[in-house]
Amino acid sequence: MACVCTGRSRGYPTRAVKVIVPAAVGSLTDPVARVVAEDMGRRTGQNWVVENRPGAGGIIGTDAIAKAAPDGYTLMLTANNFIITPSLYRNVTYKVPADFALIGMVGRGDNLLVASAASGIRNIADLVARAKASSMAINYTSPLIGSAAHLTVELFKRNAGIALNHVAYNNSGQGITDTVAGLIPVNVMGISTALPYIQSGKLVPLAWTGTERAPELPDTPTFVQAGFKDVHMGLWFALVGPAGLPADMVTWLNGQLNASLRSTAVIERLKSFRIDPQPGSIKDLTALVERELPQYQKLAAGTGLKLD
Fold it and tell me: How confident is the model at residue 163 (pLDDT cuts 50, 70, 90)?
């Protein structure tokens, strides 16, 4: 009888696994990837090495995965800009999901719109009033062009009927530094990133993309509570590989990932970033991508946002 092989019976992995993060150090994807990689390395007996490949809204790193050998030694941990950017950029060289093996969900989270304390903006109504009164668009930044955070503000602009100008940074950490310093009035980021600056009085929370208020910021409304009913886009993270990855290997990796996401240590570390672990099947992630991809295409068309 023929052997039904698994990733482990193939001897995989016999060397280090590279995990590409299509975003810079300082983005929320980076620490999420490092938590998962560390635990997966322990489980699989080989180092999982995170490599940041930022640029073009995640396209550079994602393109590298699409072109990687389907042997399990080059994977990617990505946020949902993975399926957003193909709708925004004109010259994407890969197809989602056709050029990828979907391994499994990692977690879900939400973004927080903040203002620099130096801007004098104290709440979201204040931001809207200032934007409407200004002859020039107020600058804002986000962790990544084409990210859920970026698209959230574009949706907010459309809902509020205001002009805001996106200032792109190659390094999201620099964008945070410039917001804290007052050079950029508005930013959108993960709550775990923002909290220390809020607590020190350098950033002011304005609105939250979650379905209910964040316990850490009980006085900060969700966008829906603030009157912007269409602005509720959260973020999610997933592990993917190149198309052609053997199905048995994908199944084995999914099992290892789910075991990692159910471990107390990983749960606690992800929750410290305000990320809820989401173990699940390959079919779960596939269904999510198939469901949300046309939604993002519609949103991109609605905002009129097109990038080169």
Answer: very high
